[in-house]
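Quick one, T. Sequence first:
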Amino acid sequence: MPVDYWNRPQLNSNPLNRSSWRRILFTVLFPLLVYLGCHPGATRKTTPVFVFDRLEGARVVMDSTLAPDPAIEQYVAPYRQRLQEMMSTVIGEAAEDLFRARPDGPLNRFIAGAMLEQVKKYTADTVQVAVTNIGGIRANITAGPIRLGKIYEVLPFENELVIVELTGEQLLQLAREIAEVGGECIAGMTLYVRGRELVRVELDSGPLRDDRVYRVVTTDYLSAPGRQRLGTLSRGKRIFLGIKHRQAIIDAIRERQQRGEPIRDPGKTRFIEVAENGNSRG
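Structure tokens:
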């Protein structure tokens, strides 16, 4: 037997009677249909349909034989000049060549150390460890004046600094993951490894405790949810600091220049190979 939805008994305390449904129909649905052009008196708008019967392409060589467009050159000229002036600004001095290397290198140590140093400006909490990836460092720094443009070459990505909170057990797992990939840029902890196997980890701040919460400064890229490489970084609570990774390094170099100090290798080896007999060598 068909159900009469208009006249059936209402089970709730605020029933929608026939009058209510009419109000809904005329105040909501009907204007919506008018807007969409679906009511009987509406004039439907048609969208032109294009049919392609042939698609052609050609290779355009982008080299010195391609003449510049004078109008575009004129438009860009003032911006190019200002950018060149800004990028050629000397922001500091390097006392020695700083290069990236795996598992450890002078530039690795400087960048990670500068992250740990700069993060103090953005949080009152103690941050024990810094981690970033070697793959994000795209150029070395040679001894001598450091221009702003050089740091854009070294760190070309728009990554931001974040703090990740990890338990002691998670931090130990992170150390294992860093050892397994053959090393990354770290500060605040030293890994003792045998090949790509972690033997033990030492924190600059003291013994590692499983029940303690540690704070790691890293990048939003490395700590993004779902990452597999160094995946432990994606499992902790993230605190965004609102500063670019590159800007933190620029600030660290400029501050040294203001103090009359060049940048140099911090010197402390962060990966120490442990031989089978237990002896270690950095």
